[in-house]
Amino acid sequence: MLAQLSGLYAVTPDEDDIGTLARKVRQALAGGARAVQYRNKSAQAALRREQGAALLAVCRRAKVPLLVNDDLDLAENLDADGLHVGRGDVSVAAARARLGKNKLLGASCYDRLALALAARDAGADYVAFGSAFASPTKPGATQAPLSLYREAKASLDVPIVAIGGITSGNARAVIEAGADAVAVISALFDAPDVERRAREFARIFSDYEVEKRNPV
Fold this sequence. Notes:
This protein has helices at residues 18-30, 45-62, 72-78, 92-99, 113-122, 146-155, 171-177, 186-189, 194-213; strands at 7-11, 35-38, 66-69, 82-85, 104-110, 126-129, 160-163, 181-184. Helix content is 45%, strand content 17%.
């Protein structure tokens, strides 16, 4: 599973209605999302447990990993496939110690390669840099330049995820710079047709791989 962390990484929006959220995630998976992160910053704990369980069932049927954003207790209680941590959350080393070696663990590294190197050494399976572009979800986020993805690609032996402001119009730039996956919230789940938008992202990756194998 770990080696295949690539392509579209769907990150859920704040959505209270479980049915709506599950439907949108099913559409994203049908369109080619390769991993899902459950992220809800506004819901109460009981709703988060219910939503997380519903999405885990959806992802298990699709044979796609579900990771939980920031909440180690929830990830453990659900027996989710992994956890993503950021600044101010449980440390990578502590999360790895509790999760064990068979769960995916990712870390937000913002615009700092040093954080990514430390996260990898502490047990992270992948690292995320961002905001790659101006982000509607985090409008004040520090921006990670494309040069950082290139530097990280040359320095790291774990998958690199780009996050923040990524759309089907600019995703190619971060992929060319070295991102193995793109984590997307608004441009995916706010689309009028989530499955179609997911297919657009999936096609960007497949076209890029074809072009790499068959350079002009």
